[in-house]
Design brief:
This protein has 348 residues and is of the alpha/beta class. 55% of the residues lie in helices and 11% in strands. The strands form two sheets. The chain has a five-stranded mixed beta sheet. The chain has a two-stranded parallel sheet with strand order 6-7. Helix 4 packs parallel to helix 6.
C-alpha cells in the first residue's frame, strides 16, 4: 500500500530500502490525532520490513520496533540528525509493550523479519537494539542462535536512544524506568471517551425510549422527564471512569483499578444525588433515582479497568484475577440498577 510518510528510497545491495525522515508531516500529526480519538485506530499501522533514516551504512545501528504508526513516528522523531536502520516487526498495529505480551513482538517474527530484509548483507555488525518493553516477547538467546544477531535492550523511551548510544550502549537507571506522568495518562483519555461514550449513548437511548413508553404521561413529556437524570448519570459515570481515573490514578486508593473507579465514583454519586435527589417525591421516583445512582459506580469501575496498561505494577495474571472478582460485581450492580429503575414505573 502507499505510505505517504516515506521520503524516498535508499539504493542498497539488497535493493531499494524505504527512506524516512525524522520530521513529521501534517498528515502524520493529523493521523496521530485521529488514532488518539479512535478514528481508524485499528488500521493505523505501517508495512513491516526494513527502513532507512538518514544515510545508514554497514556500521549504522539497527533499531527494532513495532508497526503501530504512533510508535514508529515517536521513534523516528527521536533520531534527528542520525543514520539508522529501523527494522519494523508485524505486530498487527499494536504498540511494543502490548505486542510483546500478545506474542506478536516476538522471537519468531524478529528472526523471520531479519531474514526477509536481507539485513545480514547490509550491516557489518551483528547487533540489534530492541526497546526494553519488548523484552517479555523475545528470547534473546534464540535470536542469536537462529539469526546470528545479538540482542541489546535499549532504553524505555525513544528520546533516550541517542544518549544511550553515545554512552556506549549503557543505560542509566532513569532510562530503564517507565513512568506514566499526567501528560501520558491524559493522552489515553480521548479513545476511552469515544469507546465508552458510544456504548453509553445506546444505553441512554434505551432508557429514554423505555421511559417514554412506560411513564405515566404522553410519550414526549415522559422522554423530557427521564432524559436529564439518565443522561446525567451516564455522563457522570463516563467522566468518572474515563477521565478522573487516569488523571488521579497515582492518588486513588487501592491497587485494583475497579476499586479506583469505585472510589472516584463517590464524587459522581454526590453530584447526581444533589442534582436529582430532591425529585424523588414518591416511592416510584425513589426507585428510579436509586437505580440510576447504582449505574454510576458500576460503569465507572468497569471503565477504570481499561487503564490497566497505564501503570507499572499490573500484570496479565493480576488483570485476569481482578476481572474474575470485579466483573461479576460490576455486571450485578448495573443489572440491579436497571431493575430498580424499571421498578420505579410499577411502584406508586
Amino acid at each position: 500500500m502507499t505510505q505517504k510518510f516515506l521520503s524516498g528510497a535508499l539504493e542498497t545491495k539488497v535493493g531499494k530500502v524505504p527512506l524516512v525522515s525524522s520530521s513529521l508531516t501534517r498528515d502524520d500529526v493529523t493521523g496521530a490525532w485521529r488514532a488518539r480519538w479512535g478514528i481508524g485506530r485499528m488500521t493505523y499501522s505501517i508495512d513491516p520490513g526494513l527502513y532507512a533514516l538518514g544515510n545508514p551504512g554497514g556500521s549504522s545501528p539497527v533499531l527494532v520496533t513495532a508497526n503501530y504508526k504512533l510508535t514508529f513516528d515517536r521513534l523516528r522523531q527521536a533520531l534527528t540528525g542520525g543514520d539508522f536502520w529501523i527494522l519494523v516487526l508485524d505486530t498487527k498495529g499494536i504498540n511494543v509493550w502490548c505486542a510483546a505480551g500478545k506474542g506478536t513482538f516476538g522471537t519468531e517474527e524478529l528472526v523471520e523479519r531479519i531474514e526477509k530484509s536481507g539485513l545480514a548483507r547490509l550491516v557489518d555488525h551483528r547487533e540489534l537494539i530492541l526497546p526494553q518493553l519488548g523484552a517479555p516477547g523475545v528470547a534473546a538467546h534464540l535470536v542469536k542462535q537462529l539469526s546470528g544477531f545479538r540482542v541489546v535492550y535499549g532504553p524505555v523511551r525513544g528520546e533516550d536512544i541517542k544518549p544511550f548510544l553515545a554512552a556506549g550502549k549503557k543505560a542509566t537507571g532513569e532510562m530503564r524506568r517507565k513512568n506514566f506522568p499526567l501528560t501520558e495518562r491524559f493522552a489515553l483519555i480521548p479513545i476511552e471517551l469515544v469507546a465508552g461514550g458510544k456504548a453509553l449513548f445506546f444505553l441512554f437511548l434505551a432508557l429514554v425510549l423505555l421511559g417514554g413508553f412506560l411513564g405515566g404521561q404522553a410519550f414526549w413529556p415522559n422522554v423530557l422527564r427521564h432524559a436529564p437524570p439518565a443522561g446525567s448519570a451516564l455522563g457522570l459515570s463516563l467522566f468518572m471512569g474515563a477521565v478522573l481515573v487516569p488523571v488521579l490514578l497515582p492518588w486513588l486508593p487501592g491497587r485494583a483499578f475497579s476499586a479506583k473507579g469505585l472510589s472516584v465514583s463517590i464524587f459522581g454519586l454526590v453530584v447526581f444525588l444533589a442534582g436529582f435527589g430532591q425529585e424523588a417525591r414518591t416511592a416510584g421516583d425513589l426507585f428510579t433515582i436509586l437505580g440510576l445512582a447504582l449505574l454510576i459506580p458500576a460503569i465507572a469501575a468497569f471503565l477504570a479497568m481499561n487503564f490497566t496498561g497505564a501503570s507499572t505494577y499490573t500484570s496479565l495474571s493480576g488483570v485476569k484475577r481482578e476481572m474474575r472478582f470485579a466483573l461479576p460485581l460490576e455486571i450485578g450492580g448495573g443489572f440491579l440498577g436497571v431493575v430498580l429503575w424499571l421498578g420505579g414505573f410499577f411502584v406508586s
